[in-house]
């Protein structure tokens, strides 16, 4: 029974790869499952067997794209103090997005459409990445005695929310880059002041 | 020369009011300038003389809607300490949006489309309202000796950005209300800890 399952997975990957290439070149507006099936030499019914709707397909492409972006992103592993590490990590992640907008405008536009619906798998995946990153950074600061002791789970979610305006695709699409960089640094300073305050919970 | 100018302003208001009513009932997807002109007993050319595109018209409606929403919103003028006032004000403003989503779903959907482009007049107007509200709240806290002294202009902008995920229409549209309320309270606690910290700048 293994062989057919692997084949189905391979077909799924082939569909994703071709769909992504078509979307990368021409955007989602002119994209159709019919054209995709023709380009793959498949029947549209076969494509629909793997992806029940254009939305599901788009979401899967976004999820793959986000995963690759994450893999490319290297949080600063330096010996810098926690507050500096946090500021550097957030601003680097924002720069990865800004590069993505320049290099893959059509794909990023699709990501923005997807991100408007926070309950989609790709949006949830991105959210959990962000929170995991903040969890590491805050834990590091607490261990080093720089940040106050807090509930890691809820604090990483709150800190992630505080950076939404510089990390969420919707905000990055039409924003002025120098304004974004300024805002990113200011938000990092605000969050760092809170995390070092005895008042933080 | 005065009479014709007043008439033009009146015509502009008539167009806005009729367009808003049509959008409120049926959303933007089925909306057209041709239908609007017919409903007003005008020529489409006459409508276009006042609003050069559907986007300009939609933005003007959003701006009017945001202005009314602001007028309806009363920041807490109580004697509560600054941190509590800030928390109450942000969460009340969020509730105004949530009520708006329930009462005017089509209009709010349009607001979300508009808000995706931060350079539109209605989006800029909303941003300046938010920042003015935070400026008042932070100034009050500094005057009362509760918040540290900061640059009011830049801090109100940073604090506004920190609350984007609970105040920006894009985030409110599909979000879970109880999660939003939790996040709003946590962000307020984080910002209040920062504003009372000697580390804040």
Automatic annotation (TrEMBL), chains A, B:
Keyword list, A-Z: DNA-binding, Transcription, Transcription regulation
The HTH tetR-type domain is annotated at 9-69
Which Pfam families does this one have?
TetR_C_27, TetR_N
What PROSITE patterns does UniProt report for this protein, alphabetically? HTH_TETR_2
Q: Tell me the domain of life.
A: Bacteria
- Record-linked SUPFAM superfamilies: Homeodomain-like, Tetracyclin repressor-like, C-terminal domain
Q: Do the record's keywords include Transcription regulation?
A: yes
Gene Ontology molecular-function annotations: DNA-binding transcription factor activity; transcription cis-regulatory region binding
Q: Which residues bind DNA?
A: 32-51
Coiled coil location: none
Please tell me whether the keyword DNA-binding is annotated for this protein. yes
Q: What is this protein called in UniProt?
A: TetR family transcriptional regulator
């Amino acid at each position: 029974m293994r062989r057919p399952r692997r084949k189905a997975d391979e077909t799924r990957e082939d569909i994703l790869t071709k769909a992504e290439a078509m979307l990368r070149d021409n955007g989602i507006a002119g994209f159709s499952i019919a054209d995709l099936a023709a380009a793959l030499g498949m029947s549209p019914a076969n494509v629909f067997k793997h992806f029940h709707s254009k939305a599901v397909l788009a979401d899967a492409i976004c999820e793959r794209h986000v995963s690759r972006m994450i893999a490319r992103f290297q949080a600063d592993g330096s010996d810098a103090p926690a507050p500096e590490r946090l500021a550097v990590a957030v601003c680097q992640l924002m720069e990865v997005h800004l590069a993505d907008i320049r290099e893959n405008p059509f794909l990023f536009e699709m990501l923005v459409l997807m991100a408007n619906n926070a309950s989609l798998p790709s949006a949830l995946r991105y959210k959990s990445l962000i929170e995991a990153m903040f969890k590491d950074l805050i834990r590091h600061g607490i261990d080093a005695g720089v940040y106050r002791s807090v509930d890691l789970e809820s604090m990483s979610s709150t800190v992630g929310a505080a950076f939404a305006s510089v990390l969420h695709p919707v905000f990055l699409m039409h924003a002025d880059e120098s304004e974004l960089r300024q805002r990113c640094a200011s938000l990092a300073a605000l969050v760092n002041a809170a995390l070092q305050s005895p008042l933080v919970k």
